[in-house]
Every structure is written in structure tokens, then in C-alpha cells.
Amino acid sequence: MTAAEFRRIALSLPDASEAAHMGHPDFRVAGRIFATLGYPESGWGMVKLTPEQQELFVKTQPAAFAPVKGGWGRGGGTNVQLRAAKKGAVREALITAWRNRAPKRLSESIPDT
């Protein structure tokens, strides 16, 4: 998985847009951030999951997914080590994060995977 692939998948989701937050590219739906690139450094992404979703991703792919340090991580912020991540898993994580932040009517526009 590359940063370009992460960006392409994130922006392929309905009403997703790219902006910047704290010097990093981020991806938003309805003005709410669901993912970022380049945090904590180049080669990493972040997806905004629930703590339960985070636990599942970390448990099934510990080389690719890890909680963000501190309070954001306890709240579900999950780092993605892009080089170690499989494209399908990142796509699933991005869709999950997008659904968590999208308005209900919009989140129902993508069928469950």
C-alpha cells in the first residue's frame, strides 16, 4: 500500500474531500475527518475507528495497524503502517472510518462489505 493508493481509496468514497490538519493531508466527509496521511511520519496513515473496531484491526493485522498514542488512540485513532498493510484491509478500514463520520443517509449509500 502506498500513500497514493491510500489517498485514491479515501477520495473514492462518496462526498469525501481532502484538506489539511496540523500540516498533514486529511480526508473528510461532511466536514469531519475520517483519515489522515503522514502521521506520525511519512509512510503512515491514520483512520478514525471506534475502540472496538480498532481492537479488531490491530488483532488481525498487528504489523499494519496500531493505536495512535495517547487519548486519540484510546478513542479509536488507529495508525496504519502503509508498507505493511494489505490494500483490502486498508480499504475496509477507510470505509469503516468514513461510515463512522458520515451522516447516516450518506453512510447507507455504500453496501456492507
Distance between the termini: 20 Å
Which oligomerization state do the chains in this entry correspond to? single chain
Beta-strand residue percentage: 25-35%
Q: Count of helical segments? A: 5
Show unreliable segments: none
Sheet bearing the most strands, described?
A: 6 strands, antiparallel
Please estimate the helix content: 25-40%
Q: Provide the structure class.
A: alpha+beta
Question: Can you count the beta strands?
Answer: 6
* Shape summary: globular
Which sequence of SSEs, written as H and E, runs from N to C? HEEEEHEHEHH
Radius of gyration: 13 Å
What does the model show?
- There is one protein chain.
- By secondary structure, the protein is α+β, with helices and mostly antiparallel strands.
- The protein contains five helices and six strands.
- The chain has a six-stranded antiparallel sheet with strand order 1-2-3-4-6-5.
- The longest helix has 15 residues.
- The protein is globular.
What does this entry show, briefly?
With 113 residues, the protein is of the alpha+beta class. It has five helices and six strands.
